Amino acid sequence: MSHNSSTVPNSTVTRDLRDLDTGTDNIYESIVVISKRANQIAVDIKEELSGKLAEFATSSDNLEEVFENREQIEISKHYERLPKPSLVAIDDFLHDKVYFRNPAKEQE
Predict the structure, then answer these.
(1) What does the alpha-carbon distance between residue 3 and residue 92 come to, in Å, rounded to a whole number?
(2) Is 80 a member of any domain?
(3) Into how many domains does the chain fold?
Protein backbone atom coordinates (compact mmCIF):
# COMPACT_ATOMS: atom_id res chain seq x y z
CA MET A 1 0.00 0.00 0.00
CA SER A 2 1.63 3.22 -1.03
CA HIS A 3 -0.75 5.74 0.47
CA ASN A 4 1.11 8.69 1.92
CA SER A 5 -0.59 8.94 5.28
CA SER A 6 1.11 12.26 6.04
CA THR A 7 -1.10 14.13 3.56
CA VAL A 8 -4.34 12.40 4.49
CA PRO A 9 -6.01 13.49 7.73
CA ASN A 10 -6.56 10.76 10.30
CA SER A 11 -9.89 12.14 11.46
CA THR A 12 -13.08 13.51 9.99
CA VAL A 13 -12.77 16.72 8.01
CA THR A 14 -15.58 19.10 7.06
CA ARG A 15 -15.69 19.33 3.27
CA ASP A 16 -17.21 21.87 0.91
CA LEU A 17 -19.62 19.95 -1.31
CA ARG A 18 -18.75 22.22 -4.23
CA ASP A 19 -15.23 20.77 -4.16
CA LEU A 20 -16.54 17.23 -4.45
CA ASP A 21 -18.51 17.70 -7.66
CA THR A 22 -15.76 19.39 -9.68
CA GLY A 23 -14.70 16.20 -11.48
CA THR A 24 -18.17 14.93 -12.31
CA ASP A 25 -20.50 17.96 -12.13
CA ASN A 26 -22.74 15.76 -9.98
CA ILE A 27 -22.27 15.31 -6.22
CA TYR A 28 -23.97 11.91 -6.23
CA GLU A 29 -21.76 10.59 -9.00
CA SER A 30 -18.71 11.85 -7.10
CA ILE A 31 -19.86 10.04 -3.96
CA VAL A 32 -20.23 6.81 -5.95
CA VAL A 33 -16.70 7.18 -7.35
CA ILE A 34 -15.29 7.93 -3.88
CA SER A 35 -17.14 4.99 -2.29
CA LYS A 36 -15.93 2.55 -4.95
CA ARG A 37 -12.37 3.81 -4.48
CA ALA A 38 -12.70 3.47 -0.70
CA ASN A 39 -13.84 -0.14 -1.16
CA GLN A 40 -10.81 -0.85 -3.38
CA ILE A 41 -8.47 0.64 -0.77
CA ALA A 42 -10.13 -1.32 2.05
CA VAL A 43 -9.78 -4.59 0.14
CA ASP A 44 -6.11 -3.85 -0.63
CA ILE A 45 -5.36 -3.05 3.02
CA LYS A 46 -7.20 -6.15 4.23
CA GLU A 47 -5.32 -8.41 1.80
CA GLU A 48 -1.99 -6.83 2.75
CA LEU A 49 -2.69 -7.17 6.48
CA SER A 50 -3.95 -10.75 6.11
CA GLY A 51 -0.81 -11.64 4.21
CA LYS A 52 1.44 -10.21 6.91
CA LEU A 53 -0.52 -11.80 9.75
CA ALA A 54 -0.62 -15.17 7.93
CA GLU A 55 3.12 -15.41 8.53
CA PHE A 56 2.34 -15.75 12.24
CA ALA A 57 -0.34 -18.42 11.84
CA THR A 58 0.40 -21.73 13.48
CA SER A 59 -0.50 -25.07 12.01
CA SER A 60 -2.45 -26.15 15.09
CA ASP A 61 -5.57 -24.47 16.44
CA ASN A 62 -4.81 -25.26 20.05
CA LEU A 63 -5.82 -22.31 22.23
CA GLU A 64 -3.20 -23.13 24.84
CA GLU A 65 -0.48 -22.52 22.27
CA VAL A 66 -1.61 -19.00 21.42
CA PHE A 67 0.94 -16.50 22.67
CA GLU A 68 1.55 -12.80 22.39
CA ASN A 69 3.84 -11.89 19.53
CA ARG A 70 5.32 -8.38 19.78
CA GLU A 71 5.93 -8.07 16.02
CA GLN A 72 2.37 -9.13 15.24
CA ILE A 73 1.04 -6.52 17.69
CA GLU A 74 3.18 -3.80 16.08
CA ILE A 75 1.88 -4.71 12.61
CA SER A 76 -1.70 -4.53 13.87
CA LYS A 77 -1.09 -1.17 15.56
CA HIS A 78 0.44 0.19 12.35
CA TYR A 79 -2.68 -0.69 10.38
CA GLU A 80 -4.95 0.73 13.08
CA ARG A 81 -3.16 4.09 12.79
CA LEU A 82 -3.63 4.33 9.03
CA PRO A 83 -6.25 6.80 7.82
CA LYS A 84 -9.64 5.29 7.02
CA PRO A 85 -10.10 4.17 3.39
CA SER A 86 -12.88 6.72 2.90
CA LEU A 87 -10.54 9.58 3.88
CA VAL A 88 -7.84 8.30 1.52
CA ALA A 89 -10.42 7.95 -1.28
CA ILE A 90 -11.65 11.52 -0.82
CA ASP A 91 -8.08 12.80 -0.86
CA ASP A 92 -7.33 10.77 -4.02
CA PHE A 93 -10.48 12.11 -5.69
CA LEU A 94 -9.77 15.74 -4.80
CA HIS A 95 -6.18 15.44 -6.08
CA ASP A 96 -7.20 13.75 -9.38
CA LYS A 97 -5.54 10.45 -8.48
CA VAL A 98 -8.64 8.39 -9.36
CA TYR A 99 -9.48 7.28 -12.89
CA PHE A 100 -13.21 6.87 -13.45
CA ARG A 101 -15.64 6.90 -16.31
CA ASN A 102 -19.40 6.77 -16.72
CA PRO A 103 -20.43 4.52 -19.63
CA ALA A 104 -23.96 5.97 -19.57
CA LYS A 105 -22.58 9.46 -20.26
CA GLU A 106 -20.31 8.12 -22.99
CA GLN A 107 -23.27 6.67 -24.90
CA GLU A 108 -25.01 10.04 -25.07
Answers:
(1) 9
(2) yes
(3) 1
